[in-house]
Amino acid sequence: MKKNVLIIGAGGVAKVVAHKCAQHNDELGRIAIASRNLSKCQAIIDSVTAKGSLKQPAEIRAYALDALDIEATKALIRETDSQIVINVGSAFLNMSVLRACMETGAAYLDTAIHEDPSRICETPPWYGNYEWKHLDECRERGITAILGIGFDPGVVNAWAALANKQYFDRIDSIDILDVNAGSHGKYFATNFDPEINFREFTGTVWSWQNRQWTPNSMFEVKRTDDLPVVGAQNLYLTGHDEVHSLSKNLDVPNIRFWMSFGDHYINVFSVLKNLGLLSEQPVKTAEGQEVVPLKVVKAVLPDPASLAPGYTGKTCIADLVKGSKNGQPREVLIYNVADHEEAFAETDSQGISYTAGVPPVAAARLIARGDWDARQMVNVEELPPEPFLTLLDQMGLPTRVKDEHGDRPWNA
Amino acid sequence: MKKNVLIIGAGGVAKVVAHKCAQHNDELGRIAIASRNLSKCQAIIDSVTAKGSLKQPAEIRAYALDALDIEATKALIRETDSQIVINVGSAFLNMSVLRACMETGAAYLDTAIHEDPSRICETPPWYGNYEWKHLDECRERGITAILGIGFDPGVVNAWAALANKQYFDRIDSIDILDVNAGSHGKYFATNFDPEINFREFTGTVWSWQNRQWTPNSMFEVKRTDDLPVVGAQNLYLTGHDEVHSLSKNLDVPNIRFWMSFGDHYINVFSVLKNLGLLSEQPVKTAEGQEVVPLKVVKAVLPDPASLAPGYTGKTCIADLVKGSKNGQPREVLIYNVADHEEAFAETDSQGISYTAGVPPVAAARLIARGDWDARQMVNVEELPPEPFLTLLDQMGLPTRVKDEHGDRPWNA
């Protein structure tokens, strides 16, 4: 049984995490928020207060922290007596926050794979380059570390585990379909940190096909799917965290990640990429200033958090699983539809932040209860999916299933 | 009679100027090249030597100079005993180089209007904000200052003067048409300094229509013309230097500048502009670094000089003049066609640099001869066009005329 949550990060996802922790602070205990920018932490606390999200009266405290500083992070974990750390800061912080957790005994959760600022789209399996090097140490120390517990990765991994356990004897393929059919009304914006967003797409796209790592380039492979609620969508083969763990943990020959893009997004992305403006490597201006182009692109784009008030429309994220059960071929779509306006009404956040921020709080509740206190480093598909999906049904992200028997709640 | 030329700048246009000065050094005397970057000056001298461009044996000397430093510029004019200064450096340098010329008695030539780094597309007439404030002082001191003596502005102004003097009793409209139908083979590049190129298009497009300054935005007004050699082309109403002086110096109610753009250029430009990446105002990155986005765009784009070796195709620049002569309406197209590969063969430069770099050398020859030694500040249309166009015929930029009598050399 673990208590008291330290949230690291103060972006859009951190805001949802704070709201959701507040809604369950009877179970989770005290809540603290830390980031480099204290005023962003305080703004989140103000939003939680204004919405009346706290279930039990409590004070959420804000702390200024550079989470690359392991000693400072350890000190804050101890000062706040936090037994659960939800790392929703930059993907560059994972290794230092994990180290601080390992040395203080706190449970560690994150929502995205570790990144080295100077490298993009690393060789598969990407987790092997960073996180999994600490598997043994976590096991020896009894540290609970749940990697990639957002929506994708996260919920989609739990769906894969559910399909493997309940719906199939043999799985031939898992295609993860990520559609944002919402509209933010801006000329162009990314739904989360532009730096992380673009880094996903500028290098090689790795997928797991015929039990082999297969390289493609972005926007090279396209599919069109007619999905629940959002209708027909163009999706493109993309590299993504969960492919790197599912390919290790499940006996499935084909695992691919697909993301929806409109023609306008692709055009803007292609122009920026072809010009070299998405490079993470510095260039030198005529005046001799060293600048990373991608950081300048980030500086001119809208802050993803600023998109929330006017965002309309829905997201649909799904696992399309094909294989066989009892000797019969079958196909199951496991999915969730979320609404940008409903997310804003509840948490002052847009739907992409909402879908990423609710799952780690569900996981934290399961750790607090002991159900998911694994005392080792795990990816989500290694944990029992049922209690997690049941909590998400109650917390705003219900899972539905569509197969030959119809379209219904997963546990109907 | 003036002698000895100091070239300020070491970009693509400066290279052509150096080659052409060398070809006529019997008339022009000693040649010196100065810029912030000494190695770029030396590379130009190496090119002149390799091509054997010097008509008479001579040594071209290179100097490191920050031409914003008026005292240093004056000292170099005196040290080199230069009586003619051809300023083909950045458009930000005009006022300081002009000042140095006024105080040393040297003749001053430039090819583009002065720009303040912090302002774009200034209020018309733009020359009134900078250059023309020195009209009286130039006249009092007897300083020859020829403004905008490249191709456009420059040759197109001389054509306007020719039309006004020889071809029309009354001119209703002058439409300057600037077409580059060449291909550099890169994904995207500008043909001269990207910073100056983009600054032309990001603010208000000013044209002179019905004797009034008329504002439009870039790519708002389009026309299609079937032009000699290059064929049908889409051109867009653009703000440009010569509209600011021709509207003052000629009694013409409509003066417009049009530039050809392909759909790909417009798309890349529009993406960059809409994102804010063409801004000359600094932004701050998440890390706190202050950066001017336009300077970063410049840093990632190809150096215009690097385009020369593979450049193919032709340019066509024209004045389309409408009005009447002897009571009859008439229409005359005065134009030049230049070839990128021929420009490279002669001067190691692409055609855009060539068309801009040859005219100031023709003008320098006319100053050296005394024909254009005006001893005051003038725009090109204020000078007799015939000797200038005659020299250009001999120097690689022949003028042709197309009207109801056919298509022929202007002085056939």
From TrEMBL, chains A, B:
Saccharopine dehydrogenase NADP binding domain span: 5-146
Stretches assigned to the Saccharopine dehydrogenase-like C-terminal domain: 150-396
Lineage: superkingdom: Bacteria
Alphabetical list of Pfam families matching this protein: Sacchrp_dh_C (PF16653), Sacchrp_dh_NADP (PF03435)
PANTHER family to which the protein is assigned, alphabetical: CARBOXYNORSPERMIDINE SYNTHASE (PTHR43796:SF2)
Designated name of the protein: Carboxynorspermidine dehydrogenase
Organism: Pseudomonas flexibilis
